[in-house]
Specification:
alpha/beta, five-stranded mixed sheet, 5 strands, nuclease, nucleus, hydrolase, Putative nuclease HARBI1
């Protein structure tokens, strides 16, 4: 029952398949299965820590986009929800509907390495990042590597963003490589929401409390990773999922260590090769 609901987002699809099963029964099963999957999430959604895992992730991104030492691509995606009874205004996103804004990091194989499902739809991606455990980890513990994020994120030594106005051929080539690497998170969201229509707008939005919606998202992210790990075929065309968060590009050109790191990388990879 739970898998059928995750795949369709419709109680009616489940109750139509199973005679004598009420909508309330389906809701309870979905709740219980989601809780079990959330409890097991730390075994399936894991940011690499040991040397072998770190090298494997880095190698995947180097092969895909040519940017070495990349540990993941980060972005947020909105999941539509019903109007909540508490703090309703906080859940209205920039497109005007109620949602949860969920931050994810994935590797080059579209496997989720980190999921943060907690913030209401009005929260900016950069705010969610600044208040995330993974951000604190990068700030507190020196890591030989970086994430790739779009221009809605602050430029840091461990979080590389594109240049807003590239003026040289090396800078343009960096932006092209960055886009190839970053696009994997958009494809990951596309596959996730196609596999599990309950979290896609085509499913009509989840008619649960924000807390339950967050549980359901983590649950289907676990199932998605199981599919990736076991090489389950995905037969539909992979369509990147673009939330169009209208970032205003306010963080992309912050000076400091992040800019120096990016400039050094551009020089190392593309300098003198026009």
């Amino acid at each position: 029952m739970a898998l059928r609901f995750y795949a369709t987002g419709s109680f009616y699809a489940v109750t139509g398949d199973l005679q004598g099963v009420s909508k309330a029964s389906v809701s309870r099963v979905v709740r219980d299965i989601s809780r079990v999957l959330v409890r097991e999430a730390s075994n399936y959604i894991v940011f690499p820590r040991d040397r072998a895992s770190l090298l494997q992730v880095k190698r995947g991104f180097t092969d895909m986009c040519g940017i070495p030492n990349t540990l993941g691509a980060v972005d947020c995606t909105h999941v539509r929800i019903r109007s909540p009874s508490i703090d309703e205004h906080l859940f209205v996103n920039r497109k005007g509907y109620h949602s949860i804004n969920i931050q994810c990091i994935c590797d080059s194989q579209m496997k989720f390495l980190n999921v943060l499902a907690r913030f209401p739809g009005s929260s900016h991606d950069s705010y969610i990042w600044a208040n995330s455990g993974i951000c604190r980890r990068f700030e507190d513990v020196p890591v030989q590597g970086h994430l790739l994020g779009d221009s809605g994120y602050p430029l840091r030594p461990f979080l590389l963003t594109p240049l807003l106005n590239p003026t040289t051929r090396p800078e343009e080539r960096y932006n092209q490589s960055h886009k190839r690497g970053r696009s994997v998170i958009e494809r990951s969201f596309g596959v996730l929401k196609s596999r599990f229509r309950c979290i896609d707008v085509s499913g009509g939005g989840l008619q649960f409390s924000p807390e339950r919606v967050c549980h359901i998202f983590v649950a289907v992210a676990v199932l998605h990773n199981i599919c990736v790990t076991n090489n389950l075929p995905y037969d539909e065309p992979i369509v990147p999922h673009l939330d169009d968060n209208n970032h205003d590009d306010v963080h992309a050109e912050i000076a400091g260590d992040g800019r120096r790191t990016r400039n050094n990388l551009i020089e190392q990879l593309y300098g003198g090769r026009d």
